[in-house]
Design a protein that fits this description.
Blueprint: H1 10-21, E1 34-40, E2 45-50, E3 56-61, E4 65-70, E5 75-80, E6 85-90, E7 96-101, E8 105-110, E9 115-120, E10 125-130, E11 136-141, E12 145-150, E13 155-160, E14 165-170, E15 176-181, E16 185-190, E17 195-200, E18 205-210, E19 216-221, E20 225-230, E21 235-240, E22 245-250, E23 256-261, E24 265-270, E25 275-280, E26 285-290, E27 296-301, E28 305-310, E29 332-340, E30 345-348, E31 351-355, E32 358-364, E33 367-373, E34 380-385, E35 391-397, H2 401-430
Parallel strand pairs: 29-35
Antiparallel strand pairs: 1-28, 2-3, 3-4, 4-5, 6-7, 7-8, 8-9, 10-11, 11-12, 12-13, 14-15, 15-16, 16-17, 18-19, 19-20, 20-21, 22-23, 23-24, 24-25, 26-27, 27-28, 29-32, 30-31, 30-33, 33-34
Transmembrane segments: 408-425
Protein name: DUF5711 family protein
Pfam families: PEGA, PQQ_2
Length: 431
């Protein structure tokens, strides 16, 4: 999960809690979402997870307390931890709960809230994830390692990624383990510890999730970008909320995705990129979670509330597998990109295409993000609209970094000259 939480004064939290308690449950429902209940504490909630079957909700925040609730909002137990919660996860039927703290401790609890084991791992355990059956546990910390444990506490493997590991995820059977880190990178590993692929992002990766079946990876970043990948590391689609994305979650086959962000909203998307609903809270959404079937969502906000929502979706109890690759629409165009000087690295929608000049086939008819990079030159970025099936040609003259510096110095020189003339005139007037 995202490192650090926007700590507010206790008085402000208390006012927010008091205000939200005055509002009836149904009033806050978003577009066709139904608020089943909310759980309120004087804390900044940092994360929440629903058990895969949708029957239990795990939550924790800056007050260093872990809470387990049932699907009706009844508190089953609460446990004091050694520090504020960073990230957490829960297995099917609430059998196991795992949590990482900002004091560097990883805990595993049983269904009754008793500690099975705890481990010290660096200064901060940013995130923790557990497979549906509870057999495997993944964790990431500030020591730069991605860890995989068995539920007995035995270390299966650890991989040195370098830098802070902000977020981790594991699919239902533990076959895939994903991680996102501060240094703009997403990783996917298999159960044997083999790295399957890496994917570079434009900013820090604050949260990551693998769909229960393992076919879809979704990641949210500090710059507001959300990218959806298949399990081969190919980009399926993405969006940009233009505000920090703190949490993401996926249902089976990536059919439904939810996104929590710093604009106080929890959003639900379909796999056709359509925003289904946007649910408001009174604070930044720090964590959220979908049940495996996409029918329920829990939302953790730093307004002091956990929201539990019934969603307007309809997924069969045994969903049919969706294809793990992109089905290209019939209407596609072509794009040719030239650069001066030639040889610039060409990226389309954050995917490396090759060196310019480059002719790109099968470009979908929509907006695309074009980026060119070349050593010694300023990065070029622009939106490109492919609106018909005719070939579109774009020629870009890159700006040398030195010329930009010279322009900047010339500008400063002119400003200094103007100021000097002004001071001379003022001095003569005074005389």
């Amino acid at each position: 999960m995202i490192p650090g939480t926007n700590n507010k004064k206790i008085l402000l939290i208390g006012i927010l809690v008091f205000f939200t308690l005055l509002i009836p449950s149904g009033v806050l429902a978003g577009d066709d979402a139904t608020l089943l209940w909310k759980f309120t504490k004087v804390t900044n909630f940092a994360d929440t997870k629903i058990s895969p079957d949708g029957n239990y909700v795990l939550a924790g925040g800056t007050n260093a307390v872990l809470y387990l609730l049932d699907s009706k909002g009844n508190l089953l137990w609460e446990k004091n931890l050694d520090g504020p919660v960073s990230g957490l996860s829960i297995s099917d039927s609430g059998k196991y709960s795992v949590v990482g703290t900002k004091k560097g401790t990883l805990y595993l609890f049983d269904s009754g809230g008793e500690i099975i084991w705890q481990k010290s791992m660096g200064q901060v355990v940013y995130d923790a994830a557990i497979s549906s059956g509870g057999l495997y546990i993944a964790a990431g910390s500030n020591d730069g390692y991605l860890y995989l444990f068995k539920n007995e506490g035995d270390l299966v493997w650890k991989q040195k990624l370098g830098g802070d590991i902000y977020c981790v995820s594991i699919n239902s059977d533990g076959k895939y383990i994903a991680a996102g880190k501060k240094l703009f990178t997403i990783y996917l590993y298999n159960l044997d510890g083999e790295r399957l692929w890496t994917y570079k992002t434009d900013d820090q990766v604050f949260d990551i999730d693998i769909s229960p079946d393992g076919n879809t990876v979704i990641a949210g970043c500090a710059d507001g970008r959300v990218c959806v990948l298949n399990n081969s590391g190919e980009r399926l689609w993405g969006t940009n909320l233009m505000v920090s994305v703190n949490s993401v979650s996926s249902s089976y086959y990536g059919a439904y995705l939810c996104i929590g962000s710093n604009d106080n909203y929890a959003r639900l998307y379909g796999n056709n990129k359509t925003e289904i609903l946007k649910y408001p809270t009174f604070g930044n959404v720090r964590g959220l979670s979908l049940s495996d079937d996409g029918m329920r969502m829990s939302v953790a906000s730093n307004d002091g509330n956990i929201y539990f929502l019934a969603l307007p979706v309809n997924i069969p109890s045994t969903p049919e597998p969706l294809p793990s690759c992109v089905v290209m629409p019939q209407n596609i165009g072509k794009l040719t990109v030239n650069s001066t000087p030639a040889g610039a690295l060409l990226y389309l929608d954050n995917v490396f295409i090759g060196n310019a000049p480059q002719r790109i086939e099968n470009v979908t008819l929509e907006n695309h993000c074009l980026m060119l990079k070349l050593d010694g030159y300023i990065d070029y970025m622009s939106n490109v609209i492919i609106s018909d099936e005719q070939e579109k040609t774009i020629s870009v003259v890159l700006t040398p970094k030195t010329s930009q510096n010279q322009t900047y110095l010339s500008f400063i020189t002119i400003i200094c000259a103007i100021i000097s003339v002004f001071l001379i005139v003022q001095k003569r007037k005074n005389n």
